[in-house]
Specification:
The structure holds 2 protein chains of 2 kinds.
Chain A (H helix, E strand, L loop, with lengths): L1 H37 L1 E3 L5 E4 L3 H8 L3 H30 L6 H13 L2 H11 L6 H8 L13 H29 L3 H9 L4 H29 L3 H6 L11 H11 L3 H32 L1
Antiparallel strand pairs in A: 1-2
Helix pairs in contact in A: 1-12, 2-12, 3-7, 3-9, 4-7, 7-9, 9-12, 11-12
Chain B lengths: L1 H19 L30 E9 L2 H8 L8 H8 L3 E9 H13 L6 E4 L20 H4 L4 H4 L3 E2 L2 E2 L2 E13 H6 L8 H14 L5 E4 L7 H10 L17 H15 L12 H9 L3 E7 L2 H7 L6 E4 L12 E9 L8 H16 L1 H10 L10 H7 L2 H10 L2 E2 L7 H16 L4 H13 L1
Parallel strand pairs in B: 1-2, 1-3, 7-8, 10-11
Antiparallel strand pairs in B: 3-10, 4-5, 6-8, 6-9, 6-10
Classes of the chains: A mainly alpha, B alpha/beta.
């Protein structure tokens, strides 16, 4: 009996072994390599030299665009994750209602998520083009405006457009996460609350939100990681122009590495980004889990 | 059942490890570049024992892949034709887009798996690490002598030629003849005339037509810098070849270019509107004048446009001489100390080059994308196929090229672009160029 229990104790690890092995090889090992590179000298030609301590990190922090890029990354993650979570939640609430065409609406919602980000960004680039953009064409043809509008008047506006596209492609993921959470809520809870005289807001705060919190946690943590690491939208729409004013950390380190060939600072930035991401996702998960335990 | 499970898990682990395995890769030599080898043919070693060359080619357009790997070479392709004519040499050839090629090459170098032959724009970053072979180690002498000497001179570091040009393009002023004629504007030759012409076009067309196209995007900012700096007696380097980025001429040139934008003479978003966006505007008759490559007529006709266009020299500041801007890409060979037979490898690389530059193949390649040739032997056939090549070859002869042989070129290329883009949003040109000069020249 004991021997069987002993074997049972090890069984989960045996089953997990292939996954652990694959994750170690394809995730952990590359991360360790990047850490090693960030402390190594790397020539512009890409040849890896010896250990140089924190020089890559100090060089990265001293870069003129560093502060701008960090602030852009902050606003990029906050706005895209925050607004897409809010919008995704609202849309999920709507899609959870019974109405004609609900299945079609759910299918349509998948499109932005299912399409490649490069294609999405390119399409939006064409939509907001001053000269031949679809948006201006529609507005002009409908007589809403008398002449074409320049939708990209400043880098702040450009950055807002990039955030907008980020939100557009992120909303479906949040919606489906929340929708799955909403569908798992027992309808009798709402019926009981209605009998007790609870209104819409009361049911939202006291039933819906607490019960979809696990789904929201998953979508938010994953979105923080995805959005922080998102490359195609910014790169396709502006390539960080003008003068890195619309760059996020990921696009900037790419430009640094492959355009300016400053590979050492680029790997240091990559490590800084990884640590920030671990910190943010960790704090968020710990906070949410603590709240769940308390409730 | 458990034995089966154990076997299954073991198999999964083996596959996982095998999937991560790399081919044994040659280590790049780390020593300093060798002195130039004497101009002699590689030793006659039998290449038919089997040499495989890893080749990376950049994607110049939609036809590149077809020509090298599809059926765009009269029903066959470069690789098949080369291998059938050169038994014993296998080509492992990849066509990679310009967006990805630097990333691919850098990753391969970092993994000690550099390609044998690489087609790309820059080369100077590979020389200090001793990654490249001197051209005369593998290039047959008759082919070497066929290259335009001025082109070869652009790939020299420490008296050694490290790459050969594969093709070139020349930049000039293109203008819409009808738009200028209707507005009563002469083709500008000086900056003052340019401003007058822009104002006249703006007034005549009530702002419906952009008088002047300007591209300060991340990929083309260096070209913009060259157009105006060279037209003002400045440039990237001084007469001794040292960086001279913050010269008064350069500061004035960038301020002039940004001034054109601020006066409303140009396309509205120069930091994000690429050369292709501008060419589209030109093809649609929305842009009157544009500095771009000799490929513009091909581009416009491919788009179905029929613009009455003509070319002229790039306008310069009063009393200064304008210069055409030439852009050249290169082919280079990496060292591979692990190759069992160096002589056979060098000979195979030489045969690859001979085959590529053979007019029978090369003329089709160059004309396919509307580029200009890098070897004398192709000129006659190209001019016969399209007389306009003759005029462009004259322009090419007087072009200035980017100082791509200098190790800091990548930093400078992006640096001047950043200065321009900063100036567009009110930044100080002098301060930006001073900082860049200090960074690259110490």
């Amino acid at each position: 009996m004991n021997s069987i229990q002993g074997k049972r104790k090890w069984e989960p690890y045996v089953w997990l072994l292939p996954s652990i092995l694959l994750i170690s090889i394809f995730v952990v090992f590359p991360i360790l390599i990047v850490f090693k590179l960030s402390f190594s000298e790397i020539t512009p030609g890409g040849v890896i030299g010896g250990f140089i301590g924190f020089r890559n990190f100090t060089d990265a922090v001293k870069l003129p665009a560093f502060k701008t890029v960090m602030m852009n990354t902050f606003w990029w993650v906050i706005s895209v994750v925050g607004l897409s979570t809010l919008l995704g939640f609202i849309i999920a609430m709507v899609l959870n209602q019974q109405f004609r065409g609900r299945k079609i609406a759910r299918s349509i919602l998948v499109f932005p998520w299912a399409t490649s980000l490069v294609i999405q960004a390119s399409v939006w680039n064409y939509i907001i083009k001053y000269e031949y953009g679809n948006l201006n064409n529609v507005l002009l043809n409908l007589g809403i405006v008398g002449q074409a509008i320049n939708w990209r008047t400043s880098y702040t506006v450009e950055f807002i457009w990039e955030c907008g596209v980020g939100i557009f492609v992120t909303v479906p993921f949040v919606t489906f996460c929340v929708l799955s959470g909403l569908q798992s809520i027992d309808g009798s809870l709402y019926e009981a609350a209605t009998v007790d005289g609870a209104g819409f807001w009361s049911k939202l705060w006291k039933i819906t939100l607490p019960l979809v919190r696990p789904s929201l946690t998953v979508s938010t943590v994953l979105n923080i990681i995805y959005v922080f690491n998102s490359f195609p939208i910014v790169y396709t729409m502006t390539k960080g122009a003008p003068a890195h004013k619309t760059d996020t950390m990921i696009t900037y380190l790419y430009m640094l590495s492959f355009y300016e060939r400053k590979k050492g600072p680029a790997t240091a930035l990559s490590v800084i980004g990884f640590l920030i991401l671990c910190l943010c996702a960790g704090i968020y998960m710990v906070t949410v889990m603590r709240k769940e335990e308390e409730s | 059942m458990k034995k089966f499970l154990a076997l299954l898990l073991a198999a999964v682990m083996v596959f996982a490890l095998a999937a991560c395995g790399q081919q044994a890769a040659p280590a790049p030599a780390a020593e300093a570049p060798a002195a130039e080898a004497p101009a002699e043919q590689p030793a006659e070693a039998p290449a038919d024992e089997g040499v495989t060359l890893d080749v990376i080619i950049c994607q110049y357009g939609p036809n590149t892949n077809e020509w090298f790997l599809g059926s765009g070479m009269n029903g066959t392709n470069f690789v098949d034709k080369f291998e059938s004519e050169n038994p014993g040499i296998k080509l492992n050839l990849e066509v990679i887009s310009w967006n990805d090629v630097h990333q691919v090459v850098d990753t391969r170098i970092a993994n000690n798996n550099a390609p044998d032959i690489l087609n790309i724009d820059t080369f100077s970053e590979f020389v200090p690490d001793g990654l490249l072979m001197p051209v005369k180690d593998y290039c047959p002498e008759d082919l070497y002598n066929d290259f335009f000497p001025a082109f070869i001179a652009e790939s020299v570091i420490d008296d050694t030629v490290w790459a050969v040009p594969d093709l070139a393009s020349a930049r000039a002023l293109f203008y819409n003849v009808d738009l200028l004629k209707d507005a009563g504007v002469e083709v500008p030759t000086t900056w003052a005339e340019l401003e007058d012409a822009c104002q006249a076009i703006l007034d005549y067309y009530n702002g419906e037509i952009y008088p002047w196209g300007i591209d300060m995007t991340t990929d083309e900012g260096q070209a913009c810098f060259a157009y105006y700096a060279w037209g003002n007696g400045g440039g990237f380097v001084d007469a001794d070849g040292n960086w001279a980025l913050n010269s008064p001429e350069n500061v004035e040139a960038v301020n002039f270019a940004v001034g054109l934008v601020n006066k409303g003479f140009t396309n509205p978003n120069p930091a994000t509107e690429t050369r292709y966006d501008l060419q589209d505007m030109f093809a649609a008759g929305k842009l009157a004048m544009l500095l771009t490559t000799n490929q513009l007529p091909t581009y416009v006709s491919d788009k179905g446009g029929s613009i009455n266009m003509a070319t002229a020299g790039i306008p310069a500041n009063e009393g200064k001489t304008g210069s055409s801007v030439g852009v050249m890409d290169r082919v280079m060979a990496f060292k591979d100390d692990s190759a069992p037979d160096q002589a056979a490898r060098n000979e195979a690389i030489g045969k690859f080059l001979k085959f590529f530059y053979d007019p029978e193949n090369y003329v089709g390649w160059v004309s396919m994308e509307g580029f200009l040739p890098a070897v004398n032997s192709a000129v006659e056939a190209l001019v016969a196929s399209d007389p306009s090549f003759g005029a462009w070859l004259d322009v090419l002869g007087s072009c200035q090229f980017y100082p791509a042989a200098k190790a800091e070129w990548a930093t400078v290329r992006q640096g001047v672009t950043t200065v321009e883009q900063n100036a567009l949003i009110g930044g100080d040109v002098q301060a930006g160029l001073d900082a860049l000069q200090a960074e690259v020249a110490g």
